[in-house]
Structures are given as C-alpha cells and as structure tokens.
Amino acid sequence: MTNQENAFKQVLNLVKDFNANESKYISGDYSEADVRKDYIDKFFIALGWDVNHDIQKNPYEQEVKIEKGVYVGKQQKRADYAFYIMPNFRDVKFYVEAKKPSHNLNNADDYFQTCRYGWNAGTQITFLTDFEEFIILDCRTKPDINSILNNKIKSYNYNDYANEEKFAEIYWLISREAAANNSLDKFAESLPKPKGKTISKTTHGAAYQTIDEAFLEELDEIRNSLAKTFKKSNEHLGSEELTEMTQRTIDRLVFIRFLEDRQIEPEHYVSEFVVSKTPWKDFRIACRKLDAKYNGIVFKKHFVDSDNFIEPHDAAFSQICEELAHKNSPYNFDIIPIHILGSIYERFLGKVVIATDKRVRIEEKPEVRKAGGVYYTPQYIVNYIVENTVGKLIEGKKPSEIAKMRFADISCGSGSFLITVFDTLLEYHKKWYQANPEQAKKEGSILHDGIWALSLKQKQNILLNNIYGVDLDPQAIEVTQLSLYLKLLEDETTATANDTWVMFKEQILPNLNKNIICGNSLIGTDIMDGSLFEREEELKLKPMDFESVFPEVMKNGGFDAVVGNPPYRMVQPHNTTDEVLFYYKNKYAVTAFKIDLFHLFIQKGIINLKNQGHLGFILPSSLLNNVYVENLRLWLLNNAKINKISLTKEKVFDNADVYTSVFLMSKETNESMRNDNIVAKTIELELLRKGNSFNYTFIKQSRYFETYGKVWNLLLDEINVPLINKLLSETVRLSDIAKLNRGLITGDKQKYFAKEKINDKYIPILEGGDVYRYYSNKPSNFVYFKKPKTAGGCWDAEVHLAEHKLIIRQIGIKPTASLIKEKIAVTGNIFTIMCPSIQDETIILGIINSRLIEYYWKIMFSDFKNSFPQVTLYSLSQIPIIDVTKIGKRNLDRIILLVTQIMEAKRKLLTTKTDSEKEYLEQKCSIIDKQIDQLVYELYGLTEKEIEIVEKSVK
C-alpha cells in the first residue's frame, strides 16, 4: 500500500466519524481545541506529519509546531500550526489556522488573519480549516481587509476528502511527502502570474508584493513624510542631520511595534500615539521610558529628544503612526523573520535625505546609483556561509569554549550575516543545553514546558562575547545593532523582560558600541602620518585600527571567523583620492593594475583572523580567473588554505551584472601547502543552488600554483589533472600552427547585406546559425566587401576570402567546426582558422570535433552560464594539437579519409528525401564519428584508463 493509499484509508475513517456526529460538531459547544485534537491533528498525521512528536523528540528539531491560543487584542499571536521540513527549521513551509466547525470560515477577519501569517513569513500559500471545510489561501499579496475574500484559491468540504481524486489533490499539495518535494512552491508557480514587477494587479485585483518589497515601500514613504515635517518645523536642518533623525525615528517606531507584537511590552504605544492630542510629545516620553528599560542605540537620547528640536506637526506624525499601528497594519512583527527585516533595511540604507533651504527629497547614495542599486545577499547564501564557517568551528564545543570565540563581519551593512551568526549560536546553545540538562540548570537556562530555553542574560553574553561588526556607514551600524537587539528579544515575553529589568536591576539591551563599530576596515590611522586632511574629509574617511577598537580580540590573535559580502567596486582616480590610492597600493600586497575593493577586503579579512581561523565571503567569480587578480590568487595560495569554492549556479544578484562564487578559506601561512602529499590541503569544489548544493570535485591546492596565471579552474580535479597536463605537455597550441581570426564585423546589416549578388563587389556570407559539425548551410546572403585602403586598416581579402578555411561558430558550449573550400565570407560571430594546407585543416577539423577536445574544452573553458555560452578566440587558440608532422602516413591517411567521408555523408543528409537513406546516413555518420574519436585517442597516446575518463565525462 502506498503512502497516499494509507493516508486515504485513515482520512476516510475520520470522514465517517465526523459525518455520523455532524450535528454535535457544528454546535457551539464543540470547541476549537476539541476539533484540533479529534480531527485536524489526525488529518495531518494521516498525511505523514509527526504532529504528536512521537518520532521527533528534540523540541528544537520538530517539523510541526503547534501554538496555544495567545491573543493580542482581537488578533491571535501566531498561527495554530506551522510546518517545516528538516533540516531547515528556520523557514516555515506553510501555516494552518484552525477554527471550530460552528464558525463560518468565509469571513474577512479569518482570511485576513490567516493570510497575514503567511505573507509576513514569506510563504506563498496558507490554509484555513475547521475540518468540515479546508480552504487554500493565496498569501503572495499584501493583505487587504477590503478585498481579502478574493484570496481564496480553492476549498474542499469534508466529504470531498472521501473522493479519491480530490483527496489526491490535497495529498500531493500538503502531505509530508509532497512538501519535501517542494509541492507548495510548484503549486504557487502554477498560479496566475501577476504582470509588472511588484505593484501590478493580480487576477483578483490585489497588489502583488512580497513582505520585503511592501515594507520597504512603506518605510520609504514614512522617511519622506518625516523628513518633510521635520524640515518644515526646523528649517536649519541639513541633509546628514535629517537622514540620521528620520532613521532614528523610524527605528524606534519599528522597535516599539516589535515589542508590542512579541508581547514583550503589554502596551500598544503606537496606537496610543494615533489618538493622542500630543503624539510627538507622547512619543518622546515613551522613548525616554523605554530607554531606561532597554538601553541600546535605538532609544539613546538624540537631538530629536532635545528641547532645541521644534516638534513636527502633530497631524503629520499621527498619520504616520496610524499607518504603522497594529490595528491597521498588515505587518506582524512576531512573524516577520529578522533576516527579512535586515534585507529591507539593507536597501533602505541605500537612500539619503537631501535638504535644500526650504525643501527635502530622497535620493540614492552616489555609490549606490553608480552600482545600479543595493544588492543584499539572499538568505540561503548567508546561511550556507555561516554554517560552513561559524557552524563548523563551534561543532562539538561546550558553551564555555564558544564563549572565547570571536566572529566578525568587517563590512556588515544592515547586519544580515551577523544576525545569522547570532541565530546559529543561539540555536546551538539551545540544543546543547537540551542535551545537557544539569549544565543547563547550573548555567541559568530556563525550563519551560519541558524545554530548556536560554535566559535573556545568557543571550546577552553570547551577543557581547561572540559578535563583532564594522561598517563605514553610521546608519548601517545603527540598523545592525537594531537587528541584533530584535534577535536577542525574539523569544522573550513581558515576564522574562521584566525579570531582568525589575529583579536584576539591569537594562534589557546590552551596549554594543564596543562590538559594532563605525569605521573604515581598509584604512588605518597610519594614513594620517604626515598628511593633513580636512575635518570633513577625515570624517568621511573614518580611518580605524582593529588593534585599537578591538584590543582584546587582536591581542588574542584575531577573529575565529570573518564572514560577509564585501563591496565590489573598482578603485579608480575618479572615485578615490590620490592619498587613498597610494595607501592601498603600498599597504596591500594583493593590489595590481586594477584594484577592486573586494580584493582588499579579502586580504584584510585573512590578516585579521587567528591562525586556522575561517573566512567565508561571497565574491565575484572573476577572482577565479581574471588576469588582473593573479596577485591576489597567488597571495591567497601562500597565506590561506582554500577549504571550499562553491560556484553559484543561479545569478545571485538579479539586477547586477556579476556572477558570484562562495569562497571558504582559513588562515594558514606555512609552506606545507605546496606539498602534494598532504591530504588536508585538498580543496572541495561544489555547485551551489538555492535550496541545495552538491559536491563535484576535489583538487590539491598546490595544483593552482602550476596553472597559467594561477587560475583556479573549478573543473580540474585529482582525476582529470594528469590527463589535462598530458594533453598540454605533449602538444602545441592551435595558435602556434594556424592563423585565427574573427569574421567580418559588418555593422549596419541593411547597408552591407543583400539577398542576391548585386555586382562583383558582393560576396556570399555565412552566419553563425549556418555552421554545424562537419558541414554548413549554403549562404543565403551576400555582403558588400570593402576594398583595402591601408594595410591593416580594412577588411583583409587574403584572410576573409581565403579559398579554404575552418570555421567555428561563436555561440555554443563547445567548438562546432566545419570546413569550406571556396571564397565565402563569414560574419563576426564565426571564427576562422587557416592552416598551411587543406590537408592540415582536414586533420585539425577532425581533432576539434572529437570527443577528446570536447572533454578538454569542458574542463578548461566551461563558464557554467545558463544562457549564451560562447567560444572565444583565446580559448580556441589554446586547443592542444598533436604535431601533424609526427603523425605516421598510415594514420595521416586514415584521419583524412574519415573526415572526408563524414563531411560527404553530412552533405548528402541535407538533400536526402527518403527516410531509409536518412537513417542509413545518420548511422554512417555515427560510426565514422566513433572511428575518428578512437583514432584521435590513439594519436594523442591515451591509455585505456584515460579513454574511460573522457568517455564517462562526455556523453
């Protein structure tokens, strides 16, 4: 019996029982708790979920989390059921909201409540049920109470569960088996797609916006409103002051809403500001009260709290609070993941307030505008880097050992990496104490419902001991601290917060000013030696020494791990002063003719690590092979152990023209990295995709000392390196024995092309799509061929109209070559190869089209791009060619004969009119192809084992 059949049998019994007692169940006396226990729990158990935790005993590793009814005002705090798929217990797969059967589910309040859970958590589908009815709701849209009933996708009556076909629909959507296979994502993808980027209308009229897009838009509007009302009352305020003041006010409002939704604060402050006659005054009073209790940068006294600041118009501030208040807002800060708030702020920080004498406007920062936007790191990349650095380092350690470890992001932005580091540490400690209850009790953990939870004091210590960050932007530092505070308080309640405040007489939030620093990670105070900087320029530069701001860390050897996504920006005279450029070139060994900021951050990150400390960065893939980065690659080979390089299969930053890889390294400076016999120096290489990754090869780090330009070729491994080296050492490059050229760059096609030969100046021309293996189509166009004016200053007839030449099209995952023997021109997306004789060209044609060269090409020149893979003139020039003069006459005659035969057979295939002849010719081509492959293996001296490697790789 299949899982589905077994589930159907169990649910059929539930349907029969419910039907037999339906009148009792739909009466008001039958409670929500009853229907959950008698039917809804059993329904999901039948679908394969461990609802009662009979198997998943560890409370921190359970796929079904069931909430007790906790209400905030009229709204429930959390959904009744949250479903996860192990091992990812961070991200909810879907929510289910339960009601009692007497309750009419089809009402706006229940739809809004249920969709609010899913939308805030970033899921796309949620479910509402009383067992009698099962409703599927679309959460891709921002919840709107006025149109929320349109969010219903489909509903089932409990009698539908007894229908095998309808039950199968439910089973293959939300069973454990289906959810593990991404059924909900696939289902969401099958729904009608909205048009436009974010704010277009769906088929049922709701605005399609993810939680981060919608909240970012709202924050932008609030900033704009605040800046205008602040400026109106305080005309003397400048751009930097307004930027900081609006940021601080927004941070306070967001933090207060978080405290409200998490029930850490029992009062609804923001709603009270709305109805107050003096909202700004009450806001200031509340902030002073909260500052005394919480401490931290958020409520720290600021110019907006002073009597010199003329308060904004009450109506304007009241309107802002009304939009954010819990009664009206679609945002539930109890559910929004902290990392999503971080990603929102990352983009929010890309803009600043610009003030003139009377007006204000919001603009992107210059560096953001030049970069084309802010590119925050997707959470799956952040998780991957943190798990492979911090996660590896703390594995198996006791809390007392971890307390001595230090983890940093030296370009922290809004703090997304540090939030995840903190989260990783918290989760590890929770599980460790759960497994060591005696130690948990001794070290101050709290036992609640059989689960050992970390006390607020323990979490404070972890934050202060382990987490460090640096950024040049003061607003980024403020947001990082805010985000870490939100994470710190995530599981707190009014009672636990008050225990710290009242019983221990301690402020709830620790001071992070010695952990999260505003400064320049790349420029030390030594830049000031002998140089005079204007005050404004010095403040902009913010030179900083790690030894000064983190004295204990650096005295103990440095950080245990540095993680992050450093800025990618070319350092050029127009964006960098001469003093800074000179400083970079003299301070950093990795600098070359072209310098990118990420080059410097890598060296700085490694230098600031302890010996054996780990670094994890997402960086442009140009680090692997760009000619200007050879200095950096060589420096890393000598000063670091490259633990793992993970090429991201998808383009991580959608709107950025950059491909990226994740680099995981550790600081290691001894000469043993050149020793091939040390297994520990093996680099693990893998492809990383959203949601999963898989290993594909290993290679000794020392191999990269041997590559041209110290290139890090991810497709080289310990299996294929000997064969590749053999091919390179016993051959010549194609460019050594032939002339390689690109076809005609014609420019305006309408000007130079014609469908027929107008006069003798028009020459037949082939285009890229005309070129195939061993044959090409007849030209369908003619090109006007310019006459030479000066040597080398025009089209060269000797090259472009050669009577015979090899041609290879540019677009393709491997070279596709043909041979033409007449005066035909080719377009610029075709490369030409000219050899001394037609005999040489025939031999080389067979070699280039062989499986051996395809194998070589795949290893040496594959760029992993999903679209428009291209052959380049350089890669063609590097093809290893066996010395034709050393081929014996017998083999010479054989390869010429075989290539000639396959070209003839391919030509006949173009004109054949019968299926039988076509089948015969295709079979003949296949046989000759294999014969050519075998002969090429023989010419290159491959062993049986080497041939097997090629055949397995090229299919």
Radius of gyration over C-alpha positions, nearest whole angstrom: 34 Å
Order of strands across the widest beta sheet? Answer: 15-14-11-16-19-21-20-22-23
Tell me the major beta sheet.
Answer: 9 strands, mixed
What does the oligomeric state look like here? single chain
Percent range for helical residues?
A: 40-55%
* Total DSSP helices: 40
CATH architecture field of the largest domain: Alpha-Beta Complex
State the low-pLDDT regions, or none. 69-76, 195-207, 676-680, 788-793
Might you state the CATH topology name of the largest domain?
Adenine-n6-DNA-methyltransferase TaqI, Chain A, domain 2
CATH class of the largest domain: Alpha Beta
Secondary structural class: alpha+beta
On the 0 to 100 scale, the average pLDDT is 86
Question: What distance lies between the first and last C-alpha atoms, to the nearest angstrom?
Answer: 38 Å
- Strand tally: 35
Q: How many distinct folded domains? A: 4
The global form is globular
Report the β-strand fraction as a percent range. 15-25%
The CATH H-level superfamily of the largest domain is Adenine-n6-DNA-methyltransferase Taqi, Chain A, domain 2
